[in-house]
Amino acid sequence: MTLDDLSRHQILELLHKAAYIDAHRREVSHTCDGRVLATLFYEPSTRTRLSFETAMLRLGGKVIGFAGAQLASVTKGESIADTIKTVSNYVDAIAIRHPKEGAALVASRAASVPVINAGDGGHMHPTQTLADLATLQSRFGRITDLTVGLCGDLTFGRTVHSLIETLCRFGNVRFVLISPDELKTPQYVIDRINATPSCSYVEVRDLVSVIGDLDVLYMTRVQKERFFNEDDYLRLRDTYILDEAKLSLAQPHMAVLHPLPRVNEIAVEVDDDPRAAYFEQVKNGMLMRMALESSVIGDELPGYVPLEPK
Ligand code: CP
């Protein structure tokens, strides 16, 4: 599953459902009774894997899987397709993270159960986008009509690619793409903005000169694991560090998002600023995965009234 597989209404429905789940945790706690989710993580993860698993447990379901390819038969040479065909016999849905772009698509073609992309290389991270959208919704009451700055590693930052593509589907967003020349946004993502008449973008290098224009500042880590060259990583990793001095130039309502993990790109002193929204994103990630899992493999949420179609 990617967000392109969902209609705009289905995405809004997930946001609505996550808010309901947050307010009715006890009532929804048997929605996935008897269901099993596999989390197949061929790459490290803290938030995504643990929130997929917590979400399933909180809905009454169970989880199997592996955290690290070294523990699976991939080390004996097994293909993704064979692993997925095997695991499809055991579970009701699979969440997969893999270092190769397109791995989730390959998995979904081999699977006989729903497959959820939990991050494929430097390509996409759709369930992180669900967490990001929920955070925008709770901060602004909307996910459109925003000036969204994305800062850091825009080349390899898959969360950035997913977020831009999804915001383009809702429209009316001005993107400010802040990166060094070496880490600019890939052309296929720029093409998506260009194909959306109500969206626009500028590319800049300097954060300070644009921070005052932003409603949202989405900081990202320079993705060390995707660099071919250690020297380039060391040269670029500290290009942007958001601290209180820079934040003092931003509007009072601006929200600072970051998919985490962070390295140096947001100083810890920023955590106490009311504009820091990145730990809200973490909570929203679990709630959105509960909404997703209950929608994909669960029963109806007791008492839940679906969103009216527009
Ligand atoms: N945001 C995110 O994908 O974090 P993890 O790598 O810890 O899962």
What is the fold's blueprint, element by element?
Elements: H1 8-23, E1 36-41, H2 47-58, E2 62-67, H3 80-88, E3 93-98, H4 103-110, E4 115-120, H5 126-140, E5 146-151, H6 158-170, E6 173-178, H7 187-194, E7 200-204, E8 216-219, H8 230-236, H9 244-247, E9 255-257, H10 278-297
Parallel strand pairs: 1-2, 1-3, 3-4, 5-6, 5-8, 6-7, 8-9
Helix pairs in contact: 1-5, 1-10, 2-10, 3-4, 5-6, 5-10
Residues 45-48, 119, 125, 128, 259-261 line the site of phosphoric acid mono(formamide)ester.
Strand residues, percent: 15-25%
Small molecules (ligands, ions, cofactors) in the structure: phosphoric acid mono(formamide)ester
> Biggest sheet, strands in spatial order?
7-6-5-8-9
CATH superfamily heading of the largest domain: Aspartate/ornithine carbamoyltransferase
State the name of the first-level CATH class of the largest domain: Alpha Beta
What helical percentage do the residues reach?
25-40%
What sequence of helices (H) and strands (E) makes up the elements?
A: HEHEHEHEHEHEHEEHHEH
Would you tell me the structural class of the helices and strands?
A: alpha/beta
What does the main sheet amount to? 5 strands, parallel
Total number of helices: 10
What is the first-to-last residue Cα distance? 24 Å
- How many β-strand stretches? 9
Number of domains: 2
Any low-confidence stretches, pLDDT <50, length ≥5? none
Principal-axis shape? globular
Mean pLDDT: 95
CATH topology type of the largest domain: Rossmann fold
CATH architecture of the largest domain: 3-Layer(aba) Sandwich
Q: What Rg, in angstroms, do the CA atoms define?
A: 19 Å
Catalytic activity: carbamoyl phosphate + L-aspartate = N-carbamoyl-L-aspartate + phosphate + H(+)
Keywords: Pyrimidine biosynthesis, Transferase
InterPro entries: Asp/Orn_carbamoyltranf_P-bd, Asp/Orn_carbamoylTrfase, Asp/Orn_carbamoylTrfase_sf, Asp_carbamoyltransf, Asp_carbamoyltransf_Asp/Orn-bd
Function: Catalyzes the condensation of carbamoyl phosphate and aspartate to form carbamoyl aspartate and inorganic phosphate, the committed step in the de novo pyrimidine nucleotide biosynthesis pathway.
